[in-house]
Structure formats: C-alpha cells, structure tokens
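User: Could you go from structure to sequence for me? I need the amino acid at each position, not a summary. Structure tokens:
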C-alpha cells in the first residue's frame, strides 16, 4: 500500500466558523468507526456489498492518494484536488467508465446519457442540455411547488403521529420527476416505478466479485437478473410514454421535459432520439432524478431535526416567501440559507458516494504513475470528509456555503461530479430540493420520534441504516 500525505495548510483550530451563532454547539454527523487498515481484496468485495464507507481506513481521509491492489488490478483513490481535476477534466480522455460500472448502470439505460461515449455521448449531451436549461426552470418549479403542496396536505393528516419520512420523500420526489417529465401525475404507475427502483437498488446496484474481475461483455451470474430487470424496466417506461403520448397537446411551447425531449434535435445534425433512446433517456432521468433528491431531502430534514437552531433559521428565512406554483421560480433568490443547508447536506451525505474510471492511456502526475488498466477511484464521500479541506468535517454547518464564507475547495466538493460528465440535471436538483425543503419548513416543525443515531450506508446511493420515525407538527407563524 502507498499513502501520499497532503501538504496543504489546515485552518487553525481556533479559526472562527463564519456565521455560526456563539455558544451553539454544532450537530455532528453520527458515523461508524473507520477501519484502521485498508480492506483486503475479499474484504473490498464484502464492503461494496454491505457498506462502501468501510472501504477506506482512517488514513485515507488525510492522504493525497492511496494505492492498493484489488485481485489482479491496481487501484488508486485520489483525494488531491489537482489529481481529481486531471482525471475528470484536464486529461479525461485517458480515462473511461470501468466495466464494473457499465454492468451496474446498463439495466437502467443502456443507450442513455450515463453510458454513451464518444460522438454518441456528445450528441446526447447537446440534445438533452437545453431541456434542463434555465429557461425551463419556471415550468419545473411550478411542478415542484404543486407536488409539494399535495404531499404536505397528505402528511398533515398524520396529525403529529410518527411516520416514515424517507418513504414520503421518495413518493414526493417520484411525483415531481413524473410531473416534470409528463405534466401529469404518475398515477397507477407510481407504485410500479417505486417497486422497480427498490429491486434495482437492493439486488442489482452493488458490485459482485464477477463485476469487478470480468469484462462487461462477458456474462456473469448476475447478468441474467439484470437483463430481466432491464426488460421489465423498459416495458414499464414504454407504457408510461404511451399513456403520455395519448394526451392532447395544449399550447405551443413544451409543457414538460417529455415534450422537450421528444422535440429535441441535435443543434449540429438535427437528429432526435429514436424510441429506444427516448425510453432510456426518460427512464434514466426518472431513476437518477428522484432517488438522489429523495435522499437529499431526507438527510436535510434529519439534520434539521437534530439542529433546532438551524431549523429555526430556515423557518425565519422562508416565513414570508411566496412558494406558490406561480412564484416558486422567483422565490429561489430569497433562499440563500435554505440552499446552504442543501449544499451542506450534500457535503455530509453525497448521494453518489463513488466515481470510478479506468485508465486507458498511461498517465503521470504528481508523484503518481498510472498505468493502463489502473482503476482510479474518486469518492465524494472521502473528499467531503477530508481533514485537510474541511474544518471539523463531521459537523453540520451550513455557514460554509453562505455568501461571504471562505471559498469551498475546488474539486474537493463534488456532489454532482465535475468536468464534461457533470450531472446534466444538477441545477434542477438544487432548485428542487431547496424549494421542497423551504416549503416543508414553512409548514412543519420537524422532530425525530426516537433518539437512536442514524448511520449512513453506501451501496448504490448513500442511504440510512434503518427506518427513522419523524413527527411533523404544524408550524406556528
């Protein structure tokens, strides 16, 4: 094992945290103890299946990079921002998606943006990007506001009884994804989509031994199950699209993302999506668009329930903000503290906790030689908890992201990735989660119904280790 230490200066221990109320202790994120040494090859496979946060030992959170060997393959975890920049931006052409990731993601969107490469990826990116451009935000914000109000009315009926807030956020995020995509409620298809996503995350989203050692074109024991899931998923998305296409067109402009995708043409070639590509793009956007947002909202509400002073600050900010469908898009500028809470939540609990690349052309940077075939790992989880980039990294402190705070370390904060492959829906996700959180705190005081700690588990995404009961009480204005 090779560990390279970081030499960047660490802020002094007594440096004040900006905008932090005096005498208010910061809530610290509960975490399991880190292992003292790196995982062996077989322990690596077990950790990937059970909790990826156990992949790296304590020293990884202080190092520039860590080199290891996984069976026949060398892998390196990169933490230094300059190294991250080189792999994801500066020399990204020398790195490709590894076979293991292709195996995992392919069931959701074989022909979609996540797996497309070369000219095909450029065409899809050019075609999809305008559908999520700022000009679409008023349309999307209206759908977010409408769905959130419906969910708030449903949750108010619980009258303070304990409830599963993660399930509620998953339901809400799926409604928002469906309404934003199709202008209509997902209706009868909602339970089927939720059930399919649970099957994918629980059975197909983690890497097995075969995924790690076999090329993506060679069948593994898990290939049959994933192929069956893909057939089911494409059929489900196809039925939803068929139902949407039967609706009459109203007005001249796009009503939703589906209208925009269906009419989208590559600005250089004029080519649009065929039926399979359209299904894969829609399916990918629904899957990637609702589960990460649901988890972000769940973790944000969990943090606010544990930090009443921060929740009160959000409540004060949103008290008189108009978040109705007609004004929701305009309200975003009035929510800097709420956005800071979302940004800090994404730091502490990044939904996508792992990015992997395979070196396809030898590379040399810093004191590290990367040979062809090396697996390069960039973990937003490790970066966001790295002791050289964040003071008190386990502390929940939204002030880190307020205007006037010290600049966030570049390429040390990657909730949506970076470079050419940065998440195309990042701005919509930030707007969506900020608006939902603001409206929820307008409506409810959020409390936990038990005091047991909640630990994060990283499998497909960063999720809680148990179901946590919450109480929602009407907020007094």
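Assistant: Here is the amino acid at each position, in order:
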């Amino acid at each position: 094992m090779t560990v390279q230490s970081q030499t960047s200066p660490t802020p002094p221990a007594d440096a004040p945290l900006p905008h932090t109320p005096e005498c208010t202790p910061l809530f610290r994120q509960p975490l399991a103890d880190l292992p003292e040494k790196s995982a062996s090859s077989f322990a690596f496979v077990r950790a990937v299946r059970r909790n990826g946060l156990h992949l790296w030992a304590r020293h990884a959170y202080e190092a520039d990079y860590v080199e290891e060997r996984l069976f026949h393959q060398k892998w390196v975890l990169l933490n230094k921002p300059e190294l991250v920049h080189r792999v994801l931006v500066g020399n990204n052409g020398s790195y490709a998606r590894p076979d293991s990731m292709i195996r995992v993601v392919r069931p959701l969107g074989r022909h979609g943006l996540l797996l497309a490469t070369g000219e095909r990826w450029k065409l899809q990116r050019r075609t999809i990007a305008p559908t999520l451009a700022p000009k679409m935000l008023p349309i999307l914000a209206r759908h977010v506001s409408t769905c959130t109000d419906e969910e708030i009315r449903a949750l108010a009926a619980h009258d303070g009884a304990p409830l599963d807030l993660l399930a509620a956020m998953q339901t809400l995020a799926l409604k928002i994804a469906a309404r934003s995509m199709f202008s209509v409620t997902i209706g009868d298809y909602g339970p089927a989509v939720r059930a399919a996503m649970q099957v994918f995350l629980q059975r197909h989203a983690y890497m097995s031994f075969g995924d790690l050692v076999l090329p993506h074109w060679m069948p593994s024991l898990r290939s049959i199950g994933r192929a069956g899931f893909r057939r089911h998923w494409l059929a489900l998305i196809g039925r939803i699209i068929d139902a949407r296409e039967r609706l009459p067109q109203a007005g001249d402009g796009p009503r939703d993302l589906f209208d925009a995708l269906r009419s989208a043409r590559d600005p250089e070639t004029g080519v649009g999506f065929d039926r399979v590509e359209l299904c894969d793009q829609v399916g990918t956007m629904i899957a990637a668009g609702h589960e990460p947002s649901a988890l972000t909202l769940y973790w944000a509400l969990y943090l606010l329930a544990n930090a009443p002073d921060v929740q009160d600050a959000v409540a004060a900010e949103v008290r008189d903000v108009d978040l109705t469908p007609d004004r929701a898009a305009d309200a975003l500028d009035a929510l800097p503290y709420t956005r800071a809470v979302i940004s800090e939540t994404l730091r502490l609990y990044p939904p996508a906790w792992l990015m992997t690349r395979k070196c396809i052309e030898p590379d040399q940077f810093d004191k590290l030689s990367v040979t062809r075939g090396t697996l390069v790992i960039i973990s937003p989880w490790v970066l966001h908890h790295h002791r050289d980039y964040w003071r008190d990294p386990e502390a929940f402190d939204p002030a880190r992201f307020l205007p006037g705070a010290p600049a966030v370390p570049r390429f040390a904060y990657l909730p949506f990735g970076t470079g050419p492959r940065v998440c195309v829906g990042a701005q919509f996700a930030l707007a969506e989660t900020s608006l939902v959180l603001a409206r929820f705190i307008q409506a409810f005081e959020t409390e936990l119904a038990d005091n047991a700690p909640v630990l994060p588990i990283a499998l497909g995404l960063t999720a809680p280790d148990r179901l946590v009961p919450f109480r929602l009480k009407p907020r007094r204005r």
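One structural detail worth keeping in mind: The two ends are 57 Å apart (CA to CA).
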